[in-house]
């Protein structure tokens, strides 16, 4: 498999510890968490494994060199001096993503353009031809990260964001990101040890991610391709071995995963996505109104849902969230109910005291993941029984 090297996994705010634990369980070395990222070490096979298996990673980057930069000429020269023929040829395509946290550089698109010029100029002067840019589907995707005067150049081993699992072909208004859904499930403590319900399931993302966690199915097993498959050192035999080993660790799930949605179109989309993921044996989706439903199973029920809020869908906020609280309280005893909302004001109307409240982000929107514990009988009696 070769020597170990440093990698960086990008993630969402608040998911750094989750991702660090995932990488540790997979066998990563020298794990260090930062802001929206985790650095670690592993070999090429581990890079393949991390892309396939990490539920809370958005990207897996492979840093290849770092240099100091104090102006745009030093940036150009630093990129130009590196031998890019190691990683691509002039008849291939490239794309460059840049992020900057610097007083020297303030425009990421300009940095990306300057780095592209340096690479293209090197090939033109050496070979007489130049690689083209393809922002959608390049042979090589390069990541430039500038923090103050330090520039780190990495290869993007993932390609499109790893939230694009490959199973979702149908979506609704404001669908939840797959990485966000998986992270919320992990924050809620979901491990597949009880029945599960998403009572406002939309296109089924939370249900699918819940089933994949319960069955220990690799997060990106349905993904059509990864960027590393176009690299010069792509080892298909090693990748196949890693993929087979991960699939051998899947497990059976002996509880029920159910989803409701009041909208018939949403139900159809959820069913289609569940079938695309090959999880129809584990998940049931029906057209039902959560507010008219009640808990059907015995034993503890784990609920996680992403209710609509007034920025996306026209609802009477106060009445809607009051109904959520009343439904949980009256009709779902013996339930741990988790809910994410980007409408922090709306939480006041639920009428239940959350036992946990976690700050997360849904895209750029600050949100809260809250937990409500519904006991069988009185809470006092339940605590005494314990």
Q: How would you summarize this macromolecular structure in one to three sentences?
A:
By secondary structure, the protein is an alpha/beta fold. It is 31% helix and 25% strand.
Pick out its properties.
about 375 residues, alpha/beta, Rossmann fold, eight-stranded mixed β-sheet, 10 helices, 15 strands, disordered C terminus
Q: What are the SSEs and their pairings?
A:
Blueprint: E1 5-10, H1 16-26, E2 29-33, E3 37-42, H2 44-53, E4 59-68, H3 72-81, E5 93-101, H4 108-127, E6 132-133, E7 140-147, E8 150-156, H5 178-187, E9 195-198, H6 205-214, H7 236-247, E10 257-261, H8 264-276, E11 283-287, E12 301-305, H9 317-331, E13 335-341, E14 356-362, E15 365-374, H10 379-385
Parallel strand pairs: 5-6, 5-7, 9-10, 9-12, 10-11, 12-13
Antiparallel strand pairs: 1-3, 1-4, 2-3, 4-8, 7-8, 13-15, 14-15
Helix pairs in contact: 2-7, 3-4, 5-6
Descriptive account of the structure:
This protein is α/β, with parallel strands linked by helices. The protein folds into two domains: 5-156, 2-Layer Sandwich (VC0802-like); 178-219 and 251-385, Rossmann fold (3-Layer(aba) Sandwich). The chain is 31% helix and 25% strand. It has ten helices and 15 strands. The protein has helices at 16-26, 44-53, 72-81, 108-127, 178-187, 205-214, 236-247, 264-276, 317-331, 379-385, and strands at 5-10, 29-33, 37-42, 59-68, 93-101, 132-133, 140-147, 150-156, 195-198, 257-261, 283-287, 301-305, 335-341, 356-362, 365-374. The strands form two sheets. The protein has an eight-stranded mixed beta sheet. A seven-stranded mixed beta sheet has the order 11-10-9-12-13-15-14, with helices on one face. Strand 2 and strand 3 (37-42) form a beta hairpin. Helix 2 (44-53) crosses helix 7. The longest helix has 20 residues, at 108-127. The relative contact order is 0.11. Mean pLDDT is 93; it is low at 378-386.
């Amino acid at each position: 498999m070769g020597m170990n090297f440093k990698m960086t996994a990008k993630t969402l705010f608040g998911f750094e510890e989750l991702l660090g634990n995932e990488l540790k369980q997979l066998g990563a070395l020298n794990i260090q968490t930062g802001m929206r990222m985790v650095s670690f070490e592993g070999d090429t096979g581990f890079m393949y494994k991390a892309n396939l298996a990490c539920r809370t990673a958005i990207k897996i980057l492979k840093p290849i060199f770092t240099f100091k930069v104090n102006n745009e000429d030093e940036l150009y020269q630093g990129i130009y001096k590196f031998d890019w023929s190691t990683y691509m040829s002039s008849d291939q395509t490239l794309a460059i993503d840049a992020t900057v946290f610097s007083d020297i550089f303030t425009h990421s698109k300009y940095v990306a353009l300057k780095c592209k010029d340096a690479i293209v100029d090197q090939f033109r002067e050496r070979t007489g031809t130049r690689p083209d840019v393809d922002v959608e589907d390049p042979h090589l995707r390069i990541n430039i990260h500038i923090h103050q005067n330090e520039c780190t150049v990495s290869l993007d081993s993932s390609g499109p964001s790893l939230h694009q699992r490959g199973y979702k072909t149908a979506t609704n208004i404001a669908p939840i990101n797959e990485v966000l859904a998986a992270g919320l499930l992990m924050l809620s403590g979901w491990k597949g040890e009880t029945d599960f319900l998403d009572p406002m399931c939309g296109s089924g993302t939370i249900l699918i991610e819940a089933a994949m966690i319960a069955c220990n199915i690799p997060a990106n097993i349905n993904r059509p391709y990864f960027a590393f498959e176009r690299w010069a050192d792509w080892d298909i035999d090693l990748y196949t071995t890693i993929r087979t080993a991960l699939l051998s660790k899947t497990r059976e799930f002996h509880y029920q995963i159910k989803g409701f949605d009041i909208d018939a179109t949403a139900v159809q989309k959820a069913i289609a996505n569940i079938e695309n993921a090959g999880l129809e044996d584990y998940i049931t989706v029906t057209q039902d109104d959560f507010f008219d439903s009640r808990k059907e199973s015995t034993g503890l029920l784990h609920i996680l849902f992403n209710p609509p809020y007034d920025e996306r869908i026209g609802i009477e906020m106060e009445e809607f969230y009051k109904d959520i609280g009343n439904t949980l309280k009256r009709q779902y005893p013996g339930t741990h109910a988790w809910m994410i909302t980007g409408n922090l004001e709306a939480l006041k109307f639920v009428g239940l005291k959350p036992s946990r409240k976690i700050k997360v982000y849904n895209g750029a929107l600050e949100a809260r993941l809250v937990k409500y514990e519904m006991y069988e009988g009185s809470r006092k009696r339940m605590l005494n029984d314990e």
